[in-house]
Specification:
Blueprint: H1 3-10, E1 19-20, E2 23-24, E3 26-27, H2 38-51, H3 61-81, E4 89-92, H4 95-110, E5 116-120, H5 129-138, E6 141-145, H6 157-161, E7 166-172, H7 184-193, E8 197-201, H8 213-216, E9 220-224, E10 235-239, H9 241-246, E11 257-260, E12 265-267, H10 281-297, H11 299-318, E13 323-325, E14 335-340, H12 345-354, E15 357-358, E16 360-362, H13 367-372, E17 378-382, H14 389-407
Parallel strand pairs: 3-15, 5-6, 5-7, 7-8, 8-9
Antiparallel strand pairs: 1-2, 4-10, 9-10, 11-12, 13-14, 14-17, 16-17
Helix pairs in contact: 2-10, 3-10, 4-5, 11-14, 12-14
């Protein structure tokens, strides 16, 4: 991506022009949440200024226009991840709620004692805790595919753990703590061979990689808007239509019903069966605008730019005395996790913040990953389409300041 194009892209993100502690903001915490372009901010503002009304239930013009905007966002998601049917797209509060929906609705009606759920050691807590709760409720058991020193799945481990008892495999597409891109297509193929379903956590993937749920043949795919340059509080669940039709509702309330009496309630058709209550309408509109923005820039161009940033940062990291990279698989997406000898990650984050550099420090909601490496925390820089090589330089300039302050 040339400098002129990058400058034009950066200009679309108002927050990137601000200063922190008197210094230009260098925002490298994109795996936690991305910044929002003007097009997304304007789309939400337009909804509240011109369309604000509840959807699906009103006959007046505002309600119909709001409904159209909301449903157009669903169509955009369908096309973005190449789902076969629009009713396979369920709006949720984000990836976390989407996983909980599947665990509660599909899991409680399909699992029994002796069944097994298979996860990987690199999962985010959101793809661990709901399955633990499900196992406690049903008597199913949880098994874990281990990772190796580089942060990839141990070769052959998945195959050895898959049995006829395996009912579901949960796997992150891209690790939020390591950056590892998992071979999800092959994982899905192996899981289906023993009759297991597969849920893919795409929260860290959709902003970096082209996703085709039909080509992958995954059974469920989840992602959040706020990591895709969209609003917080909105996301989506993709599920194969046959599975969703068979699943009971996750929550009860308005709009997920067909008819209600005190004797009996019948439920609405897909996708509304899983969308109880007034949704985050403005958020859905903003997510649709975010998808438009990403597709206008082009995922291939975004991926190439971020790969260049990561390669450049990795080269500097390997030459930085006392710095150890955590997660060194060749297939990675936009994440540089590391520790610095003699300095706690939280101290790194504090000093970098004083230099205007925003990174994430901690366990990244991936405590099993930290346990694997016998670490309490790491420092994590994560890249987006608007980051620059100069910002990578600023990161390492600030790290040299950290080293000087702590180690002399």
């Amino acid at each position: 991506m040339n400098e002129l194009v990058l400058a034009e892209l950066r200009a679309q993100f108002p927050i990137l022009s601000r200063q922190v502690h008197g210094k230009p903001l260098v925002y490298l915490d994109n795996a936690a949440t991305t910044q929002k372009p003007q097009a997304v901010l304007q789309a939400e503002c337009h909804y509240y200024e011109q369309l604000n009304a509840n959807i699906h239930r009103g006959v007046h013009a505002l309600s119909q226009e709001a409904t159209d905007a909301f449903e157009q966002a669903r169509d955009k998601i369908q096309r973005f991840i190449h789902a076969a049917h629009r009713e396979e797209i369920i709006f949720t509060r984000g990836a976390t709620e989407a996983i909980n929906l599947v665990a509660h609705s599909w899991g409680r009606s399909h699992l029994q004692p002796g069944d097994e759920i298979l996860l990987t050691e690199m999962e985010h807590h959101a793809n661990i805790v709901p399955w633990q709760l499900l196992c406690e409720a049903t008597g199913a058991q949880l098994k874990v595919v281990p990772i190796d020193a580089r942060g990839g799945l141990v070769a052959g481990a998945l195959q050895s753990l898959l049995t006829h008892k395996t009912k579901l495999v949960g796997v992150t597409h891209v690790s939020n703590a390591l950056g590892t891109i998992n071979p999800v297509a092959e994982i899905i193929r192996q899981a289906h061979a023993v009759g297991a379903l597969v849920l893919v956590d795409g929260a860290q993937a959709v902003a970096h990689l082209a996703v085709d749920v039909q080509a992958l043949d995954c059974d469920f795919y989840v992602f959040s808007s706020h990591k895709l340059y969209g609003p917080t509080g909105i996301g989506a669940l993709y599920g194969k239509r046959s599975l969703l039709q068979d699943m009971p509702p996750y929550q009860g309330g308005g709009d997920m019903i067909s008819q209600v009496t005190f004797a009996r309630t019948t439920y609405n058709q897909l996708p509304y069966k899983f969308e109880a209550g007034t949704p985050h309408i403005a958020g859905a509109v903003g997510l649709g605008a975010a998808i438009d923005f990403v597709q206008t820039v082009g995922l291939e161009r975004i991926a190439a730019h971020e790969e260049h940033l990561l390669s450049y940062a990795t080269e500097q990291a390997l030459q930085f005395e006392g710095l150890t990279l955590i997660g060194t698989m060749p297939e990675k997406a936009g994440i540089l996790s590391f520790v610095l000898k003699g300095v706690h990650p939280h101290d790194i984050g504090t000093i970098l913040d004083n230099e205007g550099v925003a990174i994430r420090t901690g366990h990244h909601c991936a405590m099993p990953v930290m346990d694997h490496y016998a670490l309490a925390a790491t420092a994590r820089a994560s890249f987006a389409l608007y980051n620059t090589l100069e910002e990578v330089d600023a990161l390492f300039h600030a790290l040299r300041r950290v080293q000087k302050l702590f180690l002399g």
